[in-house]
Write a structure and sequence with these properties.
The chain is an alpha/beta fold. The chain folds into two domains: about 110 residues, Aspartate Aminotransferase, domain 1; about 240 residues, Type I PLP-dependent aspartate aminotransferase-like (Major domain) (Aspartate Aminotransferase, domain 2). It is about 40% helix and about 15% strand. It has 13 helices and 13 strands. The strands form three sheets. A seven-stranded mixed sheet has the order 3-9-8-7-6-4-5, with helices on both faces. It has a three-stranded mixed sheet with strand order 1-2-11. Helix 3 crosses helix 8 and helix 5 runs parallel beside helix 6. The longest helix has 20 residues. The two termini are about 25 Å apart. It binds pyridoxal-5'-phosphate.
Length: about 375
């Protein structure tokens, strides 16, 4: 399998296979991965601390830089503490063991991301799947299976990576309170940095942030969340913010703290600098939200089926697979890159076109995209 070569940092414009494109792919929603001060911080960190500490956090693996990332993440999320580790992919692997010891079964959204499915399997409890974003089906699955056991935990992506659809977490809560004690756990990889007034993700967006990761349960339902610094937040690595006790439990629940190399110095340096920008420049998030509205409204005006969500990743279909592939190629030929995703978690048999909007897209760039789509969408 050959993949295109990304020959520049991700941003509104990129160079891929030697060609410059107006870019609507990836997940760098706040546009920080090519930011000069983020890059400079990564270079300084590499020079000062070497490639990485070359041992685990439990040994001599904790550099001041890693503590700085955790302090800044706690400040960004408004929590007492945060656990920073080398990959968002393993975030659920870290949190699920911390919250499932008392649980008897997990109920998973059927389209949950690969890493969520794998982590749920590792939890060693029975796993049942419910229909994507469907609280009624969740309720019926719970009724069907719970006579056998109690204390369910519902697990889902906060934002579906391919489509940008938001999980109906308040509806899940309504269902779950009849089965309390229960848990609702969300992987918010695409919500962190995008959703909510302060960018804390889906639970902030729906007014429940104060209850997550060690906060008080609601009607007997505990809320938990994990995510990544590698997307909107402009850095790299997984993150679990929360109360001191919750984070201590997350550190102890798997062997990532005492059995894995700590995150590399350069990426920790970049992550710290990117978090500092996210904290100091809320206007970036506001610009991103304005761009998201612009594109979502424009797509809907074209008659395309797009939700009214405030997420920066927007998946839509314009016909059968071949037609969408042609549309992707036609846009590419005029210098606009809108990825066609033939397969991914949450993607139907024909695949979909998946746009990523970022804060750095100018109105002119967004208009160019919408005009090109209008011209080519009937291909
Ligand atoms: C829902 C979800 N969780 C986790 C990840 C993995 O995060 P990371 O790239 O930081 O390992 C992704 C990556 O695309 C994702 O979409």
């Amino acid at each position: 399998m050959t993949s295109p070569l990304m020959e520049s940092p991700p941003g509104p414009e990129v160079v891929i296979d030697g060609v410059k494109y107006l870019y609507f792919g990836g997940t760098s929603y706040l546009g920080l991965h090519g930011n000069p001060s983020v890059i400079a911080a990564g270079c300084d960190a590499l020079k000062k601390y070497g490639v990485h500490t070359a041992t685990t956090r439990a040994g001599f693996g904790t550099s001041p830089l890693l503590l700085k990332v955790e302090e800044l993440a706690a400040r960004f999320f408004g929590t007492e503490d945060a656990f920073y580790f080398s990959s968002g992919y393993v975030a659920n692997h870290i949190v699920l063991p911390a919250i499932t010891s008392e649980a008897s079964a997990l109920f998973l959204d059927e389209t949950a991301h690969f890493c969520v499915v794998e982590a749920a399997r590792l939890a060693g409890k029975p796993v049942h799947r419910f229909r994507h974003r469907d609280p009624a089906d969740l309720a019926s699955q719970l009724r069907q299976h719970l006579p056998k056991y109690g204390s369910p935990i519902v697990v889902a992506d906060g934002v579906t990576p391919a489509t940008g659809a938001i999980a109906p977490v308040r509806d899940y809560l309504k269902v779950l309170k009849d089965f309390a004690p229960a848990g609702l756990h969300v992987d918010d990889a695409h919500g962190f940095g995008v959703l909510g007034e302060d960018g804390r993700g889906i639970f902030e967006e729906v007014g429940l942030w104060q209850h997550v990761n060690g906060g008080s349960p609601i009607d007997g339902v505990s809320l938990s969340v994990c995510g990544t610094l590698a997307k909107a937040l402009g850095g790299f690595g997984g993150i679990v913010p929360g109360t001191r006790d919750f984070v201590a439990k997350a550190r102890a629940s798997s062997h990532y703290f005492d059995g894995a190399s700590a995150p590399a110095s350069s990426v920790a340096g970049c992550s710290a600098a990117a978090l500092e920008i996210c904290i100091a420049q809320p206007e970036l998030r506001r610009q991103l939200r304005a761009n998201i509205r612009w594109v979502r409204d424009g797509l809907r005006e074209m008659g395309l089926e797009v939700t009214a969500d405030s997420t920066a990743n927007i998946g839509f279909t314009t016909g059968k697979a071949e037609q969408m592939r042609r549309l992707h190629e036609a846009l590419k030929a005029i210098g606009i890159l809108v990825p066609y995703m033939p397969a991914y978690s949450g993607v139907g048999p024909d695949g979909l076109l998946r746009l990523a909007v970022c804060a750095g897209h100018t109105n002119e760039m967004l208009d160019r995209l919408l005009a090109a789509l209008k011209t080519h969408v009937t291909l």
